[in-house]
Amino acid sequence: MATTNPLQFLQQVRAEVSKVTWPTRREVALTSVMVFIMALLTAIFFFFVDWMIRTGLNMVLSFFGS
Q1: Is residue 41 part of a domain?
Q2: Which helix (H) or strand (E) covers residue 57, if one does?
Q3: In a domain, 12, yes or no
Q4: Number of structural domains, the chain?
Q5: pTM for the whole thing?
Q6: Contact in structure between 15 and 7 (CB atoms under 8 Å)
Q7: pLDDT tens figures, 20-46
Q8: Does a structural domain hold residue 17?
């Protein structure tokens, strides 16, 4: 296993970071808004699924209950 000294390691890290394509401020804002919208839609979807299951279960239990 080859070992590198800390100076070489930092130089390699700097070289790799310079290759990264960083998103613009507008891209970050747009994708953040999309994530919040998708999270809201998912929450609404699961709220209605939960409501339907709860309603159906209550109907079954009231039918067979006393």
Answers
A1: yes
A2: helix 25-64
A3: no
A4: 1
A5: 0.66
A6: no
A7: 999 999 999 999 999 999 999 999 999
A8: no
